[in-house]
Amino acid sequence: MNWPDLSMGGYGFYVWGSYIFALLAIVWELVTLSYRRKSREQEKDRPGKSYEGLLMKRRHKRIAFILVGLAWTRDCHVFGRQRISQQPRFLF
Amino acid sequence: MNLYKYASPTNFYPLAGKIIPWFATPAAILFGVGLFVGFFIAPPDFQQGDAYRIMFIHVPAAWLGMFLYILMAIYAGIGWAFNARLASMMASSISVTGAMFTFLSLVTGAFWGKPTWGTWWVWDARMTSTLILLFLYIGFISLQSSIDDPRRADRAGAVLALVGVINVPIIYFSVQWWNTLHQGATIRILQKPTIHGSMLWAMLIMLAACWLYSVAVVLIRVRCIIVEREQNANRFVEATV
Questions:
Q1: Phi and psi, residue B54, nearest 5°
Q2: B154, B67, B48, B152: which is closest to B105 by C-alpha?
Q3: Quick one: chain B helix, strand, coil %, rounded to 5?
Q4: Measured between alpha carbons, how far is B57 from B121 in angstroms, rounded to an integer?
Q5: pTM: predicted TM-score of the whole model, two decimal places
Q6: Hey, is the C-beta of B186 within 8 angstroms of any chain A C-beta?
Q7: Is there a contact between B100 and B156 (Cβ–Cβ < 8 Å)?
Q8: How far apart are CA B160 and CA B138, in angstroms?
Q9: Mutate to test the interface with A, among B10, B54, B59 (most CBs of A within 10 A)
Q10: β-pair partners for B45
Q11: Are B198 and B44 spatial neighbours (Cβ–Cβ below 8 Å)?
Q12: Stronger pLDDT, A73 or B13, i.e. the higher one
């Protein structure tokens, strides 16, 4: 086993500099990734945000829209009939 | 066992979570072993002294920078050709780690170049083509980030990645095609390596460590991308309802 001196035969700045830089790059990548992962996991675990839930919500909204639409057309029809039926009474 | 089901991001997400420790733990162990062999067992070089020990991080970083680009282009191409969402996500995930390793190879190369060549940087064929590789990585990441629609971003990125693949053989053969300051290949597949066995082992162990690290990090990142894109899909659904 060789025990290298820390000065690396006068090349310590270059050898340790490159390894420190490599360590910093790896640490930077891991820290940013960890931060990103944590924030995404928190978002993912938030209740009421599941994809399936939203699809169900959209389905319910669609059904509700159809029902409201049907009711609206019926109201218009009734309103129209009322107006038609009421107009002569109001005018005459 | 139907492996095709893991092409779906939803099925791949839990699988990736399970296999990450199988790559991350050996990577940490091999980093330790590689550095031990490189610093305590490998002897000093007869010409460069201890300065050559930069090789144990420089060479794996350079190889991975090139290899990850090819892998990224393959995934991007598959994503583009077959409309495979997970493949495009993998390409996005690989790009950051590949850029990091390419940048690392340039910086450690500069640290190695100063004591051996007397200069931090020279517009050498190998170094210039590696710098272009870094720009291609940055271009891929920037292009994908600048387009809001992920599918369009994937397609645009795939074009850039596939066109940029031509740079990888240029980097590899640049030391043979042009007269450069950079030394030729020390390790060849069909020939005996020209370096001491302990140096070779240290480098190969560090290469394996970097490779395992890359797989682990790419899998962690692709899980984040899957969640992000699902959320974007949710927002789209919310906006349309």
A1: -60, -25
A2: B67
A3: 80, 0, 20
A4: 18
A5: 0.80
A6: no
A7: no
A8: 11
A9: B54
A10: B49
A11: no
A12: B13
The reply to whether A27 touches chain B by the CB within 8 Å rule is no
pLDDT tens by residue, B158-214: 999 999 999 999 999 988 888 887 877 777 666 777 778 888 999 999 999 999 999
On whether the CB atoms of residues B166 and B129 are closer than 8 A, the answer is no
**End-to-end Cα separation, chain A, in angstroms:** 116
- The whole-angstrom distance between residue B238's C-alpha and the CA centroid of its chain comes to 37
Q: CA-CA distance, B10 to B233, in Å (whole number)?
A: 13
| Of B184 and B91, more confident | B91
Give the whole-angstrom CA distance, residue B141 versus residue B136: 9
Option in B100, B223, B237 nearest A58 (CB)? B237
Pair of tokens at residue B105: 């190879």
First-to-last alpha carbon distance for chain B, in angstroms, is 38
ipTM of the complex: 0.87
Contacts of B80 (CB under 8 A, 6+ apart): B88, B154, B155, B158, B159, B162
